[in-house]
Queue: 2 jobs
Job 1
Amino acid sequence: MNEGFVKVKPGEQADVCIINTCTVTDIADRKSRQAIGKLHRLHPNAIIIVIGCYAQLKPEEIANLPGVNLVLGSHEKFNILEYLKGLDKNNPTSIHRTEIKHVKEFRHSSSREDRTRYFLKVQDGCDYFCTYCTIPFARGRSRNAPVSETLAMAQSIIREGAKEIVLTGVNIGDFGKSSGESFFDLLKAIDDINADVRFRISSIEPNLLSDEIITFAAQSKRIMPHFHIPLQSGSNEVLGLMKRKYNRELFAHRVEKIKSLMPDAFIGVDVIVGVNGETDEYFEDSVQFIDSLDISQLHVFTYSERANTKMLQIEYHNSPAEKKRRSDTLHLLSDKKTKAFYEQHMGKSYPVLWENRSHGENMIGFTSNYIRVEKPMNRTSINTIEEVKLGGWNVDRTALMAGR
Ligand code: SF4
């Protein structure tokens, strides 16, 4: 952090704690409250600042939690240092929050955490209104900076040493709407960067992951064969209830297109289980469809009701036990898909970027096609790319081992 702030080490007392919250589900809200409570207990004298989507949507609820001094909305969170000036722990809790419909400005951000991969936010907000989702209420309309500015941001983090950059956003396929450009324009621009760097596209809506983008990615040296596509349900009836902008036939076509051009590509897929209106029959239909797809992993989310969403008007509700059963079913299917994907790649060689993360005595890296790989820790390998032949599984079957 700048302006004289430094990150405390484990065990040290902090002067300021910042909690960046999420509100995508009830569980996310609860985790945010737990994190605030825990930090208040561990750092009783620290100024506690809460930002993020939960702070934007329910600022009073957060302001009433013990220890919270400052709640900042989605627009204000970019000026934390300004709000910190003159702030006293003993003052009453303050809230600064602009109504999201008035927020038009796009603010860049990038993060690295303690890993090696960089995350570059290229787009914010969403103009879709899926019936289960509150994100547009928390993040506002779709917006982005022009390609030229985004490229300059990417170049600046490459100068910092980035070897891999993940392009992120709320609805990244919508990039360009506010600058008269397109996500495809951005991909063409980053592909021309003259540096030893690789890019990943984070979650992108299937209707926006056009065949043009897939074809371009397939011949690009910079864009990795790794896709994350939200399906949400494999039942067309449920997709209709969710007001998603595609049907499952389009989704299947995207997966086939990727696999026909990039047979080794990793494809992660988001699915939500137990939404209102998802009957047993629809769920079974969805499972069969998902099983038929040549994908690598599922990210399974359990539906929880969010205030002010249209899905609340649907009368058919699923019990918590049924939601759990469906989640368990899809987790099992995901394990099957991931193991099959990993097994297909044993004995093949891929470039691995070694990260600053360890798993026991091993270090972790990811292949170009997002296979998690381990090898004995060697700190000189961190943030370097090495061609690695994939061997057997590690003990907990979460990764393949390098060079065996
Ligand atoms: S596209 Fe994503 S962020 Fe936008 S409303 Fe739908 S689920 Fe929410």
Job 2
Amino acid sequence: MEHKDLEMIIVGAGLSGLVTAWRCLDVNPGLSALLIDSADHIAGDHTWSFNETDIAPDLRDWLKPFIAYSWDSYDVAFPKRKRTLGIRYCTGNSDSLRACVLPHIKSGRLTTRLSEAVTKISPKSVTLEGGETLSAPIVIDARGFKPPADKVLGYQKFVGQTIRTAQPHGLTRPVIMDATVDQLGGYRFVYCLPFTDHEILVEDTYYTDGADLSENEVTTRLADYINDKGWGDHTLIRKEKGVLPITLAARYPKDRTAQIDLEEPTVIGIRGGYYHAITGYSLPEAVKSADLIAGLIRDAAGDYSKEPHAEMAQHKLDHLNEERFARFLNRMLFKASDPEKRYKILERFYGLPKPLIERFYAGRISKADKIRILAGKPPVPIMNALKVMSEAKFLAKHLPESDTAV
Ligand SMILES: Cc1cc2nc3c(=O)[nH]c(=O)nc-3n(C[C@H](O)[C@H](O)[C@H](O)COP(=O)(O)OP(=O)(O)OC[C@H]3O[C@@H](n4cnc5c(N)ncnc54)[C@H](O)[C@@H]3O)c2cc1C
């Protein structure tokens, strides 16, 4: 069934799907869109944080309504380095995201179909669990994470609790990484976001190879950290957990002129590989894709014969090329370093100049930045670093061609 006037279907009303709907409808006043999600409400129950400098300057004002909390600076702490970085840190949440798209829902330009799972997506149509097929010139797959067949991954895993402390907790800015804690066989740190004087999100995070999250164990160490900080007298407000992909190597056509498979639907968000290779965070990439799609729709002016589908396929290749250096750093972190000493790579990184750190997280590092990151005494044995340098060799070893699904 073709909906009259319906130009866009987005499957997945999570972060990337909603940011895309919001941006596309803001930029294109004549556009109408349909959001489909298997959950019974949009936006889930999350918080999403990012450095303000991760977002292109011309989109920062637009994104402001999404930001529920922000701080002028944040701290990092390692055994041999403590530093306050004057980088603005921002957090949005499910409530603020819902509020951003609500005007479009109220106006009728954005319709939703909830509690409906989509089983099949093609570039111009989707099939619902009950068999119904819906078509539109633009179809976007934003269904969240699915392990990719063409990547070697490590994982960032965490358990977090938002608590209300009986006494003021005393933190005035976020602690993005407190890596002074016991490392316990992988890179481990605690992350703290002080929302108010009494309310704080505390997350115990660790980087290890497999996707298994030892939830009970991590919850126990989180409780120990909370007690050690003197926040033992508290009420629990909210819990969250996450297993985020960290890309060590990716197989894809390196040639920008390579044939693009136009039979594949446009996939965005974490499922499309749009996350920071080192942190697994995807908000900045979600904003970038949303803006790109919104601009392509505007420029297509109703002729969707090629755009935005082909452009988005190219955007994916560009993203994979841009994160090549980050993947090498991940291979050093996961495969070239003694697990107990992985923190040293980050300890050293956080000694670099602030503008470089900003560019690194924003995915805008230059050749000079890369040299600067690698210069000096390496934090891992040099022979180990050399062994993981070639992505092609690493892929041949960890993801033989025959294992790559089509
Ligand atoms: C606990 C946690 C904290 C995180 N914190 C941050 C952070 O601070 N900053 C940051 O940048 N990133 C963060 N991330 C990583 C990443 O940004 C999030 O996972 C983000 O929500 C991914 O966005 P997405 O749109 O790709 O997927 P999701 O937000 O997961 O949305 C996917 C949507 O698709 C729907 N869906 C799935 N299958 C179907 C189907 N078959 N049919 C219909 N609908 C379907 C789901 O119900 C869901 O609503 C965090 C992740 C987690 C898990």
